[in-house]
Design goal:
The structure is a single chain. The protein has 120 residues and is mostly beta strands. It has a single domain (5-117), classed as MucB/RseB, C-terminal domain (Phosphorylase Kinase, domain 1, 2-Layer Sandwich), CATH 3.30.200. 14% of the residues lie in helices and 42% in strands. It contains 2 helices and 7 strands; from the N terminus they run H-E-E-E-E-E-E-E-H. Strand 4 and strand 5 form a beta hairpin.
Amino acid sequence: MYTTPDEAKASFGQGFLIPSYTPGRVALSGIQASGHRQESATKVVLSYVYGEISFMVIEEKDTSTMGLHHFKSVDVNGAPGYLKTGESDTELHWITNGAHYVVTGQIKELEAMKVAKSMK
């Protein structure tokens, strides 16, 4: 739907963040968005990939933390975060700026935390 992060930011509005850090040669490979109206996105998914590393950064205006009570508590730049790791995947959630952010996919816990903490 969008070809640049700036287009997604214009549609999502305040609270849209982009990571300044990605591991190794990982690069943005796609942007998808959805919302109630065509002009305004309520959810944006940024996809990143390189080799065996692939993950998504999801940003949405729904700030619910339901279902995250089994996750480990972490701090993401002063915001409460929720982390779950599996054998080959990681899922990290946090809420700040009136938005719910997620880093999820084939990425190590430490790298997911670095991505999350670099989001501006």
